[in-house]
Amino acid sequence: MSDWLTAGLPHIWLPYTQMATDATPLAVAGTGGTRIRLADGRELIDGISSWWTACHGYNHPHIRDAVERQLATLPHVMFAGLAHEPALRLAQRLAALLPGDLERVFFTESGSVAVEVALKMAIQYWRNLGQAGKQRIVYFRHAYHGDTFATMALCDPEEGMHTLFAGSMPDQIMAELPRDESLRRAFDLLLETHAGRLAAVIIEPLVQGAGGMKMHDAQTLAFVAEACARHKVLLIADEIMTGFGRSGHMFACEEADVVPDIICLSKALTGGTLPLAATVARRHVFEAFLSTDPTAALMHGPTYMANPLACAAANASLDLFTGEPRLAQVAAIEAQLGRELAPCRELAGVAGVRIKGAIGAVELNGDVDLGALRRRFIELGIWLRPFGKVVYLMPPFIIATEELTTLTAAVCQVLGERAQRIRDGRGT
Questions:
Q1: pTM of the entire structure?
Q2: Same domain membership, residue 150 and residue 47
Q3: CA pair distance 190, 178, nearest whole angstrom
Q4: Which member of 139, 144, 156, 392 is catalytic?
Q5: CATH code at 344?
Q6: Residue 367 annotated among the catalytic residues of the structure
Q7: Tens-place pLDDT, residues 61-94
Q8: Which of 136, 309, 397, 424 lies most in the core, judged by the most C-beta atoms within 10 Å?
Q9: Which is the catalytic residue, given 156, 267, 356, 392?
Q10: What DSSP character marks residue 344?
Q11: 112, 148 Cβ separation under 8 angstroms
């Protein structure tokens, strides 16, 4: 074990970890391309892009050079009363890239905070229009929108990771995704019944990420958008995971030809290099905040919002989407995942296989020993972090065909071993 790991572990609190039993992470010495290089000399192919961020792979020279140039001139300055080129250039580029009139960008540092800002925007939008009673938010079963208190209130209360905090969070309204005609009628009735107190509906377009990689089609998303418009409820698209190509489109809502009132972006925004998030509002939402009344302004301002280094990284990341064939690479990944994960469907203990863009998910039945799965993947030279009952792949878009085959083959092998144990009555 590395000296720094031995010395530092007694003083660190790791995320999503029971520190009494599972507190020794792998020591990382470096990264490059699709690889994580460990301090003991081993290399792992990263199959999840460091929590879905490293879309261009690690250490891309174009992003690295942009950050180095920015570091030499302006690492940071407060964004209240001051402005700088990287942030304003990035805001302009995002507005041009996003569908419709999503044109006003509010920068933050994390996805959870981006969603918090969207909620504040939605509630204050109606307050500024004289409808202060519209304060509730509708979210969907299996949703995950963050770990802060307001966003925990929008996560599935039974299947999510935040059940311990039930009763201490704001009371919001959970709905079923309207995948069929019966559920569409129920959703429409919910909006009609509660429209007078609803500020917004929030949705993860096409793929619900941390809730289990649950997928729905473009028609479902389009119906949600149409119902919101008809009942005068704002639509918030949480594209923190799906944004920037992961679903096969630059933004998932484009597949359904939907322009949400507010969209939340993060994760791949900087290509996985620096923390940055953005909440982008349509013109009519922004205009509701314009007034001679100071209390009508949006009162929010993270200390490191619009950090110049992060904005420089994000601008460089957008350059790569323009100059390199990222969406074509996603399409190729989608086809390969579909072919190479298909055998998992026949394995004992597998409930199903789902593919969308550069996302492949295998859902398991029965008890799942996550620790054993993770250790076995490491033995095979890959980095995956299954959660709940889902083993998933979300590789960097630049991954080579043979590297992706290494990932899918390892998934098939490990789940095949699990299937054999199930057949033999030796557990999971």
A1: 0.97
A2: no
A3: 11
A4: 144
A5: 3.90.1150.10
A6: no
A7: 999 999 999 999 999 999 999 999 999 999 999 9
A8: 397
A9: 267
A10: G
A11: yes
- Could you give the CA distance from residue 102 to residue 94 in angstroms, rounded to a whole number? 9
Q: Indicate whether 330 and 297 sit together in one domain.
A: no
Confirm whether 180 is a catalytic residue. no
CA 271 to chain centre: 13
Q: How many CB atoms lie within 10 A of CB 196?
A: 12
H-run or E-run covering 421? helix 401-424
Judgement on whether residues 197 and 335 belong to the same structural domain of the protein: no
**Separation CA 49–CA 68 (nearest Å):** 22
Tens of pLDDT, residues 168-207? 888 899 999 999 999 999 999 999 999 999 999 999 999 9
Any catalytic annotation for residue 267? yes
Q: Which helix (H) or strand (E) holds 278?
A: strand 277-282
Mark whether 40 is an active-site residue: no
Calpha distance 44→31 (Å, rounded) = 10
Residue 31 CB neighbour total at 10 angstroms: 18
Q: Which residue of the set 238, 261, 356, 392 is catalytic?
A: 238
CA distance 364 to 344: 10
